[in-house]
Structure formats: structure tokens, C-alpha cells
Amino acid sequence: MKKWINENIPCFAVVGRVNMGKSAVLATLLEIDDDETIRVSPTPGETTTVQILPLILDGIERVRFLDTPGFTRPIDAMKIIQSFAGNRTPDLHDIERFISTCAAEFPDECRLLQPLLQGAGILYIVDPSKPLRDAFLAEMEILRWTGRPRLALLNHKDESCPDETGWRNRLGATFNLVRTFNAHQARFDERLRLLRSLLDIEEKFRAVLETSIGLIEHEWEIRQQDSAEIIVDFLESSLQLRATKTIAARELQLPVRKQKLSEMLEKDYYRRLAHLEKTATEKLLRLYRHHLLKADLREHAYQGLDLESQETWQKWGLSRMQLTAAGALTGLLAGGGIDLGTGGHTLGIAATIGAITGAGAAYFKGGKLPNLKVSLSGVKLENSENKSLSLGPPGDPNFPWILLDSILLIHAHILRRTHGRRDQETLNVEGAQHAFSRDFEKEHRTVLQKWFLSCLKNSPDRGLEPEVFEIIFHTLQQFDES
Hints:
By secondary structure, the chain is an alpha/beta fold. It folds into 2 domains: 11-201, Rossmann fold; 221-481, no CATH class. It is 48% helix and 13% strand. It has helices at 22-30, 74-85, 92-102, 107-118, 134-146, 164-174, 188-201, 206-239, 255-287, 310-315, 320-325, 327-330, 349-364, 399-416, 442-456, 465-481, and strands spanning 11-15, 51-57, 60-67, 121-126, 150-155, 177-181, 243-248, 293-295, 338-342, 345-346, 386-391, 425-427. A hairpin with a 2-residue loop joins strand 2 and strand 3 (60-67). Helix 2 (74-85) crosses helix 3 (92-102) and helix 7 packs antiparallel against helix 8 (206-239). The relative contact order is 0.11.
């Protein structure tokens, strides 16, 4: 008989009937979304052997889970084990005899019982939407006879559970603990709660489990910090993004040529902005170990947004009153995103116009996202010179906040996606309604607005970056609490 457990590591056999969601629970708990490691399938009997799935932290195996075949003939197996015991209550010796004599007739039952015979704890998975039939009662009895620490898990599958009370009452009489879980919805705190429940039933390994839980919490905080860093880098790069092209000044005298240049620069700007978002999203997906959730290259995600429509104002960015309050800081942004440089020097046409408008423009004109068009009005050009055109970003003061809400929504979507799911999904948050930025404290909005302004001027305020990082980090922590 193969040795399945390690005496120095907490080991838990995940058992239950076929298609109860055992593999999905393990995939979500261990953050494994590839079928090569854990096969999650609606087809009964996908798990036919015992599979070792270690929880490794800091390069060391801390907890071992054993994905076992499901019960297939529990009532018949129960009767045979009872026959071995005679008039007494069956125990581990009777189960050992069953394994040694009935492996050919009951291969699945014998395989799943082997780790229990060696000392593994039990994580019993049931679907409470199923009727509580005799077969389930037989499974519970067999597991009770092992005498091993037992945790029963009601794995909800988003279905009604009319007999959940009956399930709870019966499981409570047989198992040390009964907990609820949803392998397709469980967030980090719910996964951690499940691990804490294992600690409650396995006193022998309390110190090891407590250390493991502490390491998991620390690793999650590191992920949040890395996420905040990714988001800050994305915002800084996006707000400094410009689409540039050097051309002969005489070409600008031709209206058709000028229009083509405008369209070309606009397309290039949004393509590069979409690439920045996709790169940041892919970093977040790798950080949270997702392979089936894909980044969407949304080339027109920020193009032509109508911020005058009530629907859009209800979705992302700051409210009009919040923008008005921030208007004194954003005056230099209100005029649009075009600069024309000569000989490497920026004339700052857009900034000059924006300085005149001030807070009033943030309210009265802040409701429309300016088109990214090249305008040379009032600028004298000499036909013999080359000119450097620089386009972007949109001059609307709400644009940085829309960027922020977009990447925060992407992060929130990633957190909601559990690893127990096996459907491929393209990450797209354009239909989302919540604007996180509106919930920020006024002081935080002020810090962010000042930093946004410095980035838009291509001179990020490094002194503000620690505060900006802490604001974003604090926001990500709130995601877990909400």
C-alpha cells in the first residue's frame, strides 16, 4: 500500500460521492485553475486515483490534501464492514480488513479509505441541493468508524437547498464540524476560514496550521502591495502617454494632410493606452494565478466616452461636484491634451488654455471628453522647419479618475473569479456601474489629484508617491473586507 501521509505535515483526505465538487473545492482553496493539476469536470468519476495536492509556502510543504475517488457503492461497502464487526460497532481494524479483502470489488472505496487508515483527517464534501438519501448516510457511517478528525463541507452550487437543515442535523451528529462553502464564489477570507476550520479539528498539528495560516495572510498582503505597485505604475505611464510624430512644417498647411495626421495620432494614442492596460492586467492575472481569465485589448475603451450623459456620470470617475472641488488643482488640464514642440521645446498650448478656464471649466465643460484632435490655431510655423506633434491625454479632468476606476474594477473582477471555475472568460468591465474613486476620502482625492496633475505634466511628484501607494493599497484591502 502506498504511503500517502507525512507524520510531520497535516494531511486531509477530501472525500465524498462523485460529482459533489471535491476537485472544485480544492482548486479554489489552493488557487489552481488548470486541468492538468486538478481536473474539474461535471462528468462523474473524473478522479479515479488518490492525488497529492500540497500547500507549499516559502518552498516548504505545509499542508497536504489528498483528492480521492468518490464513493460509488457506499451502502454495499457499509454492510460488508458491519459484517466484519459482528455485534460491535465497526472500527479501523474492520476497515483495514475491508481494504485488504475487497479492493477488487470496491476499488474506489478502498482507494479513498487508504489515506484514512494511515492517519489522514477527513474533509467530506456534499452538495446540500441533493436529497439526503441512504447512500449519503452510509458514507457518513463509514467515515465515522475511522475515528479520524472530520470536517463536513456543504458545497453550495448556487442552487436552492430545501433540505439543508436536514443535512446539517445529520452531519452535526457525525462530524466534528460542519461548514458552508461555495467553490465558485469563495473569496480569500472564506478560503482562510476553511483552513482555520481544519485547525479546529486537528489539534495535533495546531502549531503547524497556525504558522501556515499566518504565512498565507502575509503572502496575501504582499500580493496586495504588488497589486498597488502595478496600478500606480499603470496610472503613471498612462497619464504621461503621448502619441508623437515629427513632420515637415509645410505638410501642416494642407487640411487633408492635417486631418490624416490627427486620425493617425489618435489611433496610435488609444492603441498604446490599451496596451498599457493589457500589460497591467496580465501582471495582475499572473499575481493571482489565473490562466483561464484573459485580458481584453480594449482599443476603444476610453475613446468617445460621453461624459455628458447621465449614465456615464453614474458609472466611473468623480461626480461633477467632486470635480468642481478639485478644479483649482486641475486648471492646467482643462484645455485638452495637445502640445506642439519645436527643437525639443514644448510650447504648451493646451496648458495655456487650461490655465484660463480653472475651476469653472471643470464644472461647466468637464462633462465632455475632448476629442484628441491636433489644433495649431494661433501658432506661426516656418515652412522650412520640422515640427514635433505630441497628442494626448484627453484634457478632461475626470480622465485620470476614469483610468483609476477602470483598473480597480479589473482588480475587483480578478478577485471575484475563483480557481474552481473552468470556463474561459475575457476580462471586460465596461458594463460595470461602481465608481470606487467617488468613495475616497476628500484628503485622499486631493493627494491623488495633485499626483495626477504632476504625471500629466510629465513630471511625477516622487514625494507624493508613497501616499498614493498607501491610498491604493488601502483601497485594495477594503476590497477583501467588502
